[in-house]
Amino acid sequence: MNSSAGLAFSPHVITIGVGEDIVAKLLSLSQQRPRALCTMSGTGTVSLVTLRQPTSTNASVTFKGQFQILCLSASYLVAEDGGPLNRTGGISVLLSSPDGHVIGGGVVVLIAGSPVQVMLCNFDYCDSKTKSKQATTLKDESSEQPP
After folding, report:
1. Rounded CA separation 49/63 (Å)
2. By residue range, what is the domain housing residue 75?
3. DSSP-H helix ranges across the chain
4. Can you give the pTM of this predicted structure?
5. Does the pLDDT of residue 99 top 90, yes or no?
6. pLDDT-based confidence at 93, cuts 50/70/90?
7. Does residue 19 belong to any structural domain of this protein?
8. Are strands 87-96 and 102-112 parallel, antiparallel or unpaired?
């Protein structure tokens, strides 16, 4: 695929301990290298979740109890101005309560209620601006005549 946005995929399986913040752990992992990160799946339970309200940028709602992870989705990309600490992206989750109610949305805080296993991958991310800049540089270099 010539239009691929990522190269050099590396899969990883991590276990997040009881009481740890899953959001903080994934963000910390994404900042260790200048590579993009995305989750493939997550299993386990959470004991506390704070979700962003979609209608307001600052409003959130917190739920306490045992919730089964149905779907965990996360992606962090290196921002255009670069640097391992400058990221775009976030985490969303779909959870089931013991009585079968389903809640979900964009995550602010997600505390593990049991060991949570997350399968993720990191990869070199190239956006279209980076690709066109690289192509222009390669074209310019190839048109130069050797001395």
Report:
1. 5
2. 10-141
3. 22-30, 128-143
4. 0.75
5. yes
6. very high
7. yes
8. antiparallel
